[in-house]
């Protein structure tokens, strides 16, 4: 047991099934009588639907039905809801255009679903889908973020003039303007934050099933949050009450945000299963994922930092245009606002910050949260600006940060952009990173690279993120249309084993191990006796799911709260049996002990007594040992850290190689260091991917997606990245949750992009290149070098 | 429809399938061997790697009918009597998997890497990274996968 | 994928007969291009004729100053072959850079050269070494084989059976891979035989081509410096989101220089 508690690198319990091919992902499930759906999607980015002819498809071999928007409308099926209402300047509500499950009248992006074909086999459905004839009238197209609001840009939604969803601001504009007016240095930067595709390795899939006997619908789906899907789909789209709708998210092969949202296909298979009287399965091809999974990032930003003569930051000004795509995905409006602008203080005591964000509609696949979600965009611009400031003022990049960091002693610290940081030792993390990388030795390493004909650069990035979303009342006041607490139920079984029901969902994070460690330690029972259940609304009381690095901070805290209730009840039971007062019972190491004596009962004995209550305080206490807790966080958590990257650039080809990468992170208390390190590694590669290779590109003229498969969308491979040096600093735990945990899922992605790009710029600056946008592909680097030379 | 027969994980398996049926569909849909996954449709991601007659191959890019009479080993065929193959064991030991979706193909490809270099005294990190070119993982950042394969190398050399 | 008739060929003649008598017949060697194409429904053959069962189409041998490779020889086999490593190590290296290990276990040299993907690796070696392509009907010199994008001298129903590669004194291959697909953005194969030098380029243009100016300079001085200043015109070169024609032209020079360094080293 000592080897399975908090802080131990316990090997994962979920691995056996994944390593032996016995995991159960959605597409692995076959329901009796199951048939298959194929979605007919728009090949055009913007077009009027003049006519849909499904007759030939309906006659095709094996086809049970072909449905279009009209069928949904006849059944009163609603549109896909947006879960967050952002109010712009002057409290003007965002424009929230209809988002039909199947397109009606107009298609607004490549991949917009238009019809669904249901057939006995997968190939029959695909064959018949080709026979659905749709007569499209092309419309003019806008895909570019920067051009969406131009007066001559085609309008996507009648109620959104200039394609504007909202024009929003945060911070004190007057204070910022005043600070810039008296600044000794002003540093400006224009940046593009490139659009990304999440690319969880498991493509999305969904199976709908309807039980006529009970009138119950079941949806198996690749979701990060089955209860949220049940709520949104049941209440807004299909009008099925929650007690008649079960949503199961079984093993899910990665999410990174893209499996948070309620998607059209989930509603379609659930609805169609009742229509055709058979379970209906849909599984995306990867090509389909590229045009139907919500995409990430896609900002165009101008920003400026004002500094005094000593390099102290006086003010930050940021103007961003954020692309929403063709429709609003579930949480899209919150990403470039409350998860972005609120993080612009970073680790710095910048007194005045003002940020304006225009969110725009374009003929592209909808954009929503992707690992980090707003926070990588904030960190990226800030850390690029800081390094540029260092170059411009001649102050060392580490020194300028030192001068501006919020000191540990200033915690809790209220930033000018709404957040209150509770903890963190920013200087210590950077100093440690500088030591690990041997910052002083960089000049020698650069000289060595130069001898081999290569340009070497070093880049720092420090980051802070707001995780563990959120106090529900705060989120509600900012426009969230749901609560953001978490739920846990701890159910002791009569012979002492435990099932923990958590409202979070694991799709790679290892909750079955980490949560079991936590429960084992706190209840003092062997880890083997603890089972973690998740992902099924019929089993789990309630839950908000897993995203925003919230599972341990919010879900783990809910578990602790439920454990506290178990222990409190256990004390009453033990006191009765041991014939002492309740206040004389201490709970420690799995034992209820009479203080100062050797009289004790084990946790298992207490559980048994609760279920076989022969000697039990039945008058005051119910039998059973089963407690549920809801935990609503008191504040966000604030993971933070320092990343340092060194790159080598091949001047002839423009190839950037990462020579070293160091990450020092403060995640508060670490439950399982092995799992935490794994989360960091994966996060880093997604950040490095954005910086060096990944880019989702639409052709400006035709609106076609040019990176619609792995032949053109570059996924980071093993030989694109190095091994990493990662460490955590547990000296500044979270002050407001019971475990002191902060969360670790997104940190790597948030910090890495800026560290890599700062290193690239540092390398290229030696030959006259001052700025370059992501991704720093060989082609882009070569172009930058060429332009610098001429 | 032709009937295709092959030996999968040591067992003879037959099924009727169309000529256009891919090996991965034969395994998943006709034999219920759902450990082999499909992560892309352009022969890139490697989630579907199985061994055909001892060599790692992408089962999404070979027809079932091409493999009449072949000996196939899938992820389900590696562990013997509940004991993990050394590569599976090292993946577990070094936390080389998170969501598990790429894992079956990754493990089969990893065994292929060690098989190709068994005769050599050591296995370089660079070699491992290069030869993982045909397998994508979105979770682990590859760090621990590379570690696991290097740790399995001496164990598999025997 | 649309369904099709599937035939395992018993001989080269049988394969040719089946393909030519079908309404739309296709040879399948390794299937590494054909199957992905079929999966995307970009082709609808009536008949697919599998060449894997034809005896004698795979194999490697050296006869005198010739390295002979059967059309159905897999990339992994070429990569690992002691004969190839000894005769033309650059060719073994090239085979090891195609696709990935799993693709190399299936893909064949004949399939690659017959398909003539502008970004395939083998065409650089076929051109760079001046190989002779043997078909069921005739022999074709490398220089008259590649005609354009996915276009070759092969006639309908004509089947490649083997390649004869003259063994050079030295050779080198350098590839600049597309970061996403790992196909060649530019690949340059350089071979020196006596006083003659050939430079074969793939990836840059619609099909593999030679660079006479570099060949001349290298014949006079087989050293990286000889090609360093030779610029290739971007006119007519491929251009896409991964590499402009100008970048490709630049890379031809860089890769040629490095291929020479490898060959000379």
Defining traits:
heterotrimer, A: 790 residues, alpha+beta, Aldehyde Oxidoreductase, domain 3, Aldehyde Oxidoreductase, domain 4, 7-stranded mixed sheet, 5-stranded mixed sheet, 19 helices, 28% helix, globular, C: 265 residues, Uridine Diphospho-n-acetylenolpyruvylglucosamine Reductase, domain 2, Uridine Diphospho-n-acetylenolpyruvylglucosamine Reductase, domain 3, 2 domains, 5-stranded antiparallel sheet, 4-stranded antiparallel sheet, 11 helices, 14 strands, 33% helix, 25% strand
How would you summarize the topology of this molecule?
The complex is a heterotrimer of chains A (790), B (158) and C (265).
Chain A: H1 15-19, E1 35-41, E2 47-53, H2 55-59, E3 63-68, H3 69-74, E4 106-107, E5 113-119, H4 122-129, E6 133-138, E7 164-171, H5 173-181, E8 185-193, E9 205-211, E10 216-221, H6 226-237, E11 245-248, H7 264-276, E12 280-283, H8 286-292, E13 299-307, E14 313-325, E15 352-361, H9 375-393, H10 397-404, E16 413-414, E17 420-421, H11 426-437, H12 442-451, E18 454-464, H13 472-477, E19 486-492, E20 498-502, H14 511-523, E21 530-533, H15 551-578, E22 585-588, E23 591-594, E24 600-602, H16 603-611, E25 626-631, E26 640-650, E27 656-666, H17 673-692, E28 725-728, H18 747-765, H19 778-789
Parallel strand pairs in A: 1-12, 10-11, 14-15, 20-21, 27-28
Antiparallel strand pairs in A: 1-5, 2-4, 2-6, 3-5, 7-15, 8-13, 9-10, 9-12, 13-14, 16-17, 18-26, 19-20, 19-25, 22-23, 23-24, 26-27
Helix pairs in contact in A: 9-18, 14-15, 17-18
Chain B: E1 3-8, E2 11-16, H1 23-30, E3 49-52, E4 55-58, E5 71-73, H2 86-93, H3 103-117, H4 125-131, H5 143-157
Parallel strand pairs in B: 1-5
Antiparallel strand pairs in B: 1-2, 3-4, 3-5
Helix pairs in contact in B: 2-5, 3-5
Chain C: E1 5-8, H1 12-21, E2 25-28, H2 34-39, E3 47-50, E4 60-63, E5 66-70, H3 75-80, H4 82-87, H5 89-95, H6 101-104, H7 109-115, H8 122-129, E6 132-135, E7 139-141, E8 146-148, E9 151-152, E10 160-166, E11 170-177, E12 184-193, E13 196-202, E14 209-210, H9 212-220, H10 224-228, H11 245-264
Parallel strand pairs in C: 1-3, 2-3
Antiparallel strand pairs in C: 4-5, 5-10, 6-7, 6-10, 8-9, 11-12, 12-13, 13-14
